Amino acid sequence: MAGGTRPGLLSRRRGRTEVHEYSVALEVWESVAAAAREHGGGRVRSIRLEIGALNLIEDEQLRFWIGALAEREGSPGVELEITHVPGRVRCRSCGREGEAVVPEGALPYSVVGTLRCSECGSGEVMIVGGRDLKVVSAEIETEGRNGRGE
Ligand SMILES: [Zn+2]
């Protein structure tokens, strides 16, 4: 654990976003668990996720909750690989498409209304990327043989 990094930011965010990460973790875990059941109910070994920046997910908390859910349901030690996708917006004022500027202290559920164009600062922006959160793949151990690969 990297203690001491951004303590102010972390403690300010804690409590406010915990529920957010938990509900996301639950959603991810349930979809993976459903896939595992379809494949014979084996142990889940690893999960690869793609997370858009606009979801404002704290990786550490997400890892914690998915780990906890996996352990409770018979898949302890599940590996989580997270790929981040930057938030992208198209500006209605200047027409520029670029990375979304997420204001400091933005809340997960209201971030959309607070985004700004990185070029002219206008708030009239359309989100064109970075909102998705998807399970790219999951490695599931199948009964009797090992599920390496697909
Ligand atoms: Zn603009």
Relevant terms:
alpha+beta, binds zinc ion, hypothetical protein PF0899 fold, three-stranded mixed beta sheet, 150 residues
Characterization of this structure:
The relative contact order is 0.21. The radius of gyration is 18 Å and the shape is elongated. The longest helix is centred in the N-terminal third of the chain and has 21 residues, at 18-38. Mean pLDDT is 84; it is low at 1-15. Helices cover 28% and strands 24% of the residues. The chain is built from three helices and six strands; from the N terminus they run ααβαβββββ. It has a single domain, classed as 2-Layer Sandwich (hypothetical protein PF0899 fold), CATH 3.30.2320.80. A hairpin with a 5-residue loop joins β3 (88-91) and β4. Bound molecules: zinc ion. Zinc ion binds at residues 91, 93-94, 96, 117, 119-120, 122.
